[in-house]
Design brief:
The protein has 16 helices and 25 strands. It is of the alpha/beta class. The strands form six sheets. A seven-stranded mixed β-sheet has the order 10-23-24-25-21-22-11. A seven-stranded mixed β-sheet has the order 19-16-17-18-12-15-20, with no helix packed on it. A four-stranded antiparallel β-sheet has the order 4-5-6-7. The structure holds adenosine-5'-triphosphate (ATP) and magnesium ion.
């Protein structure tokens, strides 16, 4: 159902600037009409929703133009990378609904890249520099001032070949020397001022073990990997725009003029309000125990959103709505919440749950009687059918649905007033019992038997409708409510403040005393529900492990985005 909805929306939308470029390349007959993209994550963390934006584009372009999209792990820094991340990345891409053609690793090309580096040394286009990284940085110059050439820049080819080989044998410690491209220390593009190609790393690699002691830099690996694979359109985020001339420079050394060549196109990153979108910072949250792991439902990771109850369709619809541009900005998280609300409204069955229960006794209802009331599963979708909910003399309602002395506009339960119990009867509150501390212990009401749903008096005008569950015929549950992880709209901009000070101390509320209707006994992990009047929830996978029902609130019912939009 939502599958077709996604496609219809995609079809109607006009082309984004990348699709226009692709269509133009096809029209010009470039690369024999072949379209090939790749999604190139570094396996140094879990994917976040920003990556979902790149995934939808990389796989989306391939799908739209009958091309292929490969998954390539950009595993050029063994210190930070791990197979745990490789596995999670695969799972998250598939959950979003995409399938790669092949899986590659930048490490597949270590030999080819090494050979290419040797070729550049032989051509006098690369040299081994023995200066410290500090000195090299100082010599870089500024965009308006040329850099200073290294004293090692003109060392003989034979010496460079020998040193590079020995770097890779492990003869030198890390940082002792590097291999640099010999391009132009006066270039107006800083990335051309003899960029680093290789550095020494002694840490074992998660795939190649201790085979290599030199590892290529991103700029020396990415374009060439694209080239070796046959990528036609290499899509990445705007910060790589200034790297593009270097990308082209290395590809120029490999490609035949007029023949196949990959091209890099940049688009704006996704940033969301009240969160951070960098693996480094997300890793810090996990490592310091500030959240409960990568899939904590407060995290902007794909697995976090999955656990929180977001659907792949809602994430894709959101990405589709925000589009692709050349300008960086920050997107209101309310837009993402709007997308999940819209999707769950169409698919989530309506059930009853009481988060902060107080007992309501229907004093004129026979003791021991149980009536099964029909509850419509989804008013948006007649095909979803209905289920039954037990009505009994003792019920639970929300504590804040009752007020002893209520203001005029309080249309919930208060002595002397009538209120409707959803799918059941109209009841009139007759009083309550308080404990010594003045807290309400029980509320009393009388029901009108002629007002059962479907009966003649059921249409009687009463202003409020409350949700409820039977006291005996309901189940205990834990409910977890989430709020934004950071208190400020754009934590990454608050450079002078410590990241810890910006965290919202109330981002997680755990309610352990909730009651849910019996229907939820059948719920499976990740199943979605609308708890009437409260929001969308899903069953947390911890439920199985801990042998009790645990629900996460995906999103509340109130749509702040629609309000913003309509202003
Ligand atoms: P981070 O800065 O969060 O660590 P990254 O860019 O280092 O992210 P990679 O694993 O290198 O992460 O990214 C894989 C792909 O995802 C790249 O093409 C990158 O441009 C893209 N990407 C990363 N973050 C975002 C984002 N916030 N929005 C859109 N695309 C992104
Ligand atoms: Mg990166």
């Amino acid at each position: 159902m939502s599958e077709t909805r996604v496609n219809e929306e995609e079809g109607k939308k006009s082309l984004n600037f990348i699709e226009l470029i692709v269509e133009n390349d096809l029209a010009e007959g470039k690369n024999d009409g072949r379209i090939q993209t790749r999604f190139p994550p570094e396996p140094n963390g879990y994917l976040h929703i920003g990556h979902a934006k790149a995934i939808c584009l990389d796989f989306g372009i391939a799908e739209r133009y009958n091309g292929i999209c490969n998954l390539r792990f950009d595993d050029t820094n063994p210190v930070k990378e791990d197979v745990e991340y490789v596995d999670s990345i695969k799972e998250d891409i598939q959950w979003l609904g995409f399938q790669w053609n092949q899986i590659y690793y930048a490490s597949d090309y270590f030999q080819q890249l090494y050979d290419f580096a040797v070729q550049l040394i032989k051509e006098g286009k690369a040299y081994v520099d023995e200066q410290s990284s500090e000195v090299i940085a100082q010599q870089k110059g500024t965009p308006t001032q040329p850099g200073i050439e290294s004293p090692f820049r003109n060392r003989p080819v034979e010496e460079n070949l020998d040193l590079f080989e020995r770097m890779n044998k492990g003869e030198f410690e890390e940082g002792r020397m590097i291999l640099r491209a010999k391009i132009d220390m006066a270039s107006s593009n800083m990335h051309f001022r003899d960029p680093i190609m290789y550095r020494i790393i002694h840490h074992p690699h998660h795939r190649t073990g201790t085979e290599w002691k030199v590892y290529p830099m991103y700029d020396f690996a990415h374009g060439q990997s694209d080239y070796f694979e046959g990528v036609t359109h290499s899509l990445c985020t705007l910060e790589f725009e200034v790297h593009r001339p270097l990308y082209d420079y290395y590809v120029d050394q490999l490609a035949t003029p007029g023949g196949y060549r990959p091209r890099q196109i940049e688009f704006n990153r996704l940033n969301l309000t009240y969160t951070v979108m960098s693996k480094r910072k997300l890793l810090q949250l996990v490592k310091e125990g500030l959240v409960n792991g990568w899939d904590d439902p407060r995290m902007p990771t794909i697995c976090g959103y999955r656990r929180r109850g977001f659907t792949p369709e809602s994430v894709r619809n959101f990405i589709n709505k925000i589009g692709y541009t050349k300008y960086d900005g920050i997107i209101d998280v309310a837009l993402l919440e709007h997308a999940v609300r819209e999707d769950l409204n169409a698919r989530a069955p309506r059930v009853s749950a009481v988060l902060d229960p107080v007992k309501l006794i229907i004093t004129n209802y026979p003791e021991g009687q149980v009536e099964m009331m029909e509850a419509i599963n989804n008013p948006e979708n007649p095909e979803a059918g209905s289920h039954e909910i037990a009505f009994t003399r003792e019920l639970f309602i929300e504590r804040d649905d009752f007020m002893e002395e209520a203001p005029k506009k309080f249309f919930r339960m208060t002595p002397g007033k009538e209120v409707r119990l959803k799918n059941a009867y109209i009841v009139k509150c007759t009083g309550m019992k308080k404990n010594d501390a003045g807290e309400i212990e029980e509320i009393y009401a009388e029901y009108d038997p002629m007002t059962r749903s479907g009966m003649p008096d059921s249409n009687r005008k009463v202003k409020g409708t409350l949700h409820w569950v039977s006291a005996e015929n309901s189940l205990p549950a834990e409910v977890r409510l989430y709020d934004r992880l950071f208190m400020v709209e754009n934590p990454s901009e608050e450079k002078e403040k410590d990241f810890h000070e910006l965290l919202n101390p109330d981002s997680l509320t755990i309610l352990t005393n909730c009651r849910v209707e019996m229907e939820l006994e059948k719920a499976k992990p990740y199943d979605h529900f609308q708890f009437q009047r409260l929001g969308y929830f899903n069953l947390d996978p911890d439920s199985g492990k801990e042998g009790r029902l645990i629900f996460s609130r995906t999103v509340s019912l109130k749509d702040t985005w629609s309000k913003v939009k309509d202003k």
